[in-house]
Design brief:
- The chain is of the alpha/beta class.
- Helix content is about 30%, strand content about 25%.
- The chain has twelve helices and 25 strands.
- The protein has a five-stranded parallel β-sheet, covered by helices on one side. A four-stranded parallel β-sheet has the order 13-12-11-17, with helices on one face. Strands 22, 23, 24 and 25 form a four-stranded antiparallel β-sheet that branches.
- Helix 3 crosses helix 12.
- It is globular.
- The N terminus is likely disordered.
Length: about 450
């Protein structure tokens, strides 16, 4: 990176200091107080749906920016398994317990009302959120951070039932454990097939990092095994760096087939363990990882937040929906233009959105947005690579990359540098988890 070192990025993200470092704080943290002669008004109510990197961060920072806010976080699961780091499980570098977070600090330390329940509907007219328990929650502002869902059926034969045989493992948790168990049970000399999804998709985890971690596991435990990546695209992020590393660390193990080479998977047969490609060929695998095309969840669509793209368009200054007033959409389900769907940007945009919401309640202009993204990938336990970018709001109201900011790991880095990047990756994960859930 040319403007700020990766080490400083990790420190800033881990300390929650990115906002001030990049000029993102637009609200002082002192609560708005009523005068002695004016009756106190009820605190504004914000309901946040979804407890991942977007939702949990937003709930926490709403309370940090404005302690008088009534903030409720609704999440259907009592714990959250981070997608970042989940590939490391497949390489044997982490256990599921290492990636599992809870909401105790949000509730006990930050005063967020945490409700473990499932949202079944949103009435934007009445500003009500309906829960599976039968309860309703009223809001003045709603933040939706529901994550992703899959476009089941776009690959013939691949539906939710098929994912129990050919796991996607793109929502960390039971699917990650299932894929790990299949890899452990696979015979040495077997083939692991991965079908990579079209853009846009949730990342990280990234398909090439997953292939790298599986290759590391094979090198350690099943050295005769092979990996076949069948892709719907003709390129992928950090491609030259990954391919250089694969040639160095895992020669002859990983084969990548792009779309123009017939790599797009069009049909699967879970019973026979066979995938069929756009070129008319078929491949059999001992373990098959199908990562389908993605979209915003049905809950977001039912609430009227989704357009023809399958994602939720937003005002890229405040992340308020352009379709439904008083509702902000953050995280993977939002359409933020050039900004990737990563845990890092979800965390970063959540802070900015919290600042915008507090500003709107106070009747002052929201702060000018600026966002950063960094994506670390492990190729082996001591070989890391990364990419980073900075985004600011352009004159057209759309977020755009800042030229000269960010950058890639150098192609000619030394072994020591690669090892340092691997350490930065671990530090980044620890920092962002602490910033989000701590």
């Amino acid at each position: 990176m040319s403007k700020i070192s990766r080490r400083d990025f990790v420190k800033l993200m881990g300390a929650g200091g990115a906002l001030s470092a990049f000029g993102l704080t637009g609200c002082d943290t002192a609560p708005v107080k009523s005068s002695a002669t004016t009756p106190a008004k009820a605190a504004p109510r914000v309901v946040v749906v979804g407890g991942g990197f977007g939702g949990a961060t937003c709930a926490k920072y709403l309370r940090l920016y404005e302690p008088d806010l009534n903030v409720t976080l609704v999440e259907q699961n009592a714990s959250y398994v981070t997608c970042p780091g989940s590939n490391w499980m497949l390489g044997g570098l982490r256990k599921i317990e290492d990636l599992t977070q809870n909401y105790n600090a949000l509730r006990d330390k930050h005063g967020v009302n945490v409700v473990i329940d499932r949202v079944v509907g949103v009435d934007a007219g009445k500003r009500l959120v309906a829960l599976a328990s039968g309860k309703t929650l009223a809001y003045d502002r709603l933040v939706m951070s529901p994550g992703i869902d899959f476009r089941w059926g776009e690959i013939e034969g691949y539906d939710e039932a098929a994912s129990q045989i050919m796991p996607h493992a793109w929502k960390a948790g039971p699917q990650t454990v299932l894929l790990q168990k299949q890899l452990h049970a696979m015979p040495d000399g077997g083939t692991f097939i991965m079908a990579a999804p079209p853009m846009p998709f949730r990342c990280p985890p990234g398909p090439p990092e997953r292939a790298s971690m599986v290759a590391h596991y094979f090198k350690t435990h099943k050295p005769k095994s092979k990996i076949l990546i069948l892709d719907t695209k003709d390129n992928f992020s950090k491609q030259a760096l990954f391919m250089q590393a694969w040639e160095q660390l895992y020669p002859g193990v990983i084969e990548w087939v792009p779309a123009t080479g017939g790599g797009k998977v069009v049909r699967v047969d879970p019973k026979t363990g066979t995938v069929y490609t756009s070129s008319g060929s078929s491949e059999k695998g001992d373990v098959i990882n199908i990562i389908p095309a993605q979209r915003a969840p049905k809950l977001a669509a039912d609430a009227g937040l989704v357009n023809e793209s399958g994602w939720c368009p937003v005002n890229q200054s405040t992340f308020e929906s352009t379709r439904v007033p008083n509702v902000h959409v953050i995280g993977d389900s939002s359409n933020a233009g050039v900004v990737p769907k990563s845990g890092h940007t979800a965390n970063n945009i959540a802070k900015m959105t919290a600042a915008a919401i507090v500003s709107l309640f106070r009747g002052v202009p929201p702060p000018q947005p600026s966002h950063v993204n960094t994506c670390y990938s492990l190729v082996s336990p001591d070989y890391g690579i990364s990419i980073a970018a900075v985004y600011r709001l352009g004159e057209n109201g759309q977020l755009e990359g800042v030229k000269g900011a960010g950058g890639l790991s150098p192609a000619n880095a030394s072994a020591q540098q690669r090892s340092q990047e691997a350490g930065y990756a671990a530090a980044w994960h620890k920092g962002i988890v602490s910033d989000t859930f701590g």
